[in-house]
């Protein structure tokens, strides 16, 4: 124990000497910079630096299972045949009822997104005996599913190759 006390006091005196050598104006500027960065909105700091399609999933009922995001470049297979027809597929674990899918290095074009909350992780959107989905689902442009899934045209959006932030709300 006696060996630690001299080391701690030597370290403390070295830090004190270092702090006293830094001019007061530099310390004030550093403190102001820390305060400004600490007060920036989280949305400013959360933007992704990589160009691509960034999708925040809203209205997730619970954190059970995963969210599957499927990006389609054509109407072929949209939205039900995502395993065979989607250009890109991401499966993301849900954390605190939040999920985000980031599709990077996507060429410019017209796309549509389909998202499902796969609660039991069986790789598909479960439905009851009438065909009504029992798990959450959503589409780009908040395209609605009335008696059937929306068309590719209803859910499609243009992508020019820059950073594109989107939100998709899930329906249960």
Automatic annotation (TrEMBL):
- InterPro entries in the record: DUF2141
Pfam families associated with the record: DUF2141
Question: From which lineage does this chain's organism come?
Answer: Bacteria, Pseudomonadati, Pseudomonadota, Gammaproteobacteria, Oceanospirillales
The protein, known as: DUF2141 domain-containing protein
